[in-house]
Amino acid sequence: VLMTLRALEDDEVLGWADIDLDGQAARLETRGADELQVTYELIQLSGAWLIDTAKARGLVLFAWAQKPVVAPMDVFEL
């Protein structure tokens, strides 16, 4: 996951994440009041996308982990 944040003129922050799993790629975008909010939303969106994409392809994310990845934030706890 490669995330980028950019401040806009109207005190908003625009963020996007380029994400790829097993050859399938997406760009996720969100806007918010500050970098923390935008980063949190991008983490949530990216985690959900990774989980859904892995399930659709029959993959198990972090199969070696001590607990399964079932919620978006689980992806980033490892």
Q: What is the compact description of this entry?
A:
The protein has 78 residues and is an alpha+beta fold. The chain has 1 helix and 3 strands.
Overall average pLDDT: 89
Residue share in β-strands: 25-35%
How would you characterize the largest beta sheet?
A: 3 strands, antiparallel
Shape: elongated
Helix percent band: 25-40%
Secondary structure class reads: alpha+beta
Q: What is the CA–CA distance across the termini?
A: 14 Å
What is the alpha-carbon Rg in Å? 14 Å
User: If helices are DSSP runs of H or I spanning 4 or more residues, what is the number of helices?
Assistant: 1
Low-confidence stretches: none
> What is the H/E order?
EEEH
Assembly type: single chain
E-strand count:
3
**Strand order of the biggest β-sheet:** 1-2-3
Structure in words:
With 78 residues, this protein is of the alpha+beta class. It has one helix at residues 35-57; strands at 2-7, 13-21, 24-32. Strand 2 and strand 3 form a beta hairpin. It has a three-stranded antiparallel β-sheet, with helices on one face. The protein starts with a strand and ends in a 21-residue tail after the last helix.
Q: Which short descriptors sum up this protein?
A:
3-stranded antiparallel beta sheet; alpha+beta; 78 residues; single chain
Question: What's the arrangement of secondary structure elements?
Answer:
Layout: E1 2-7, E2 13-21, E3 24-32, H1 35-57
Antiparallel strand pairs: 1-2, 2-3
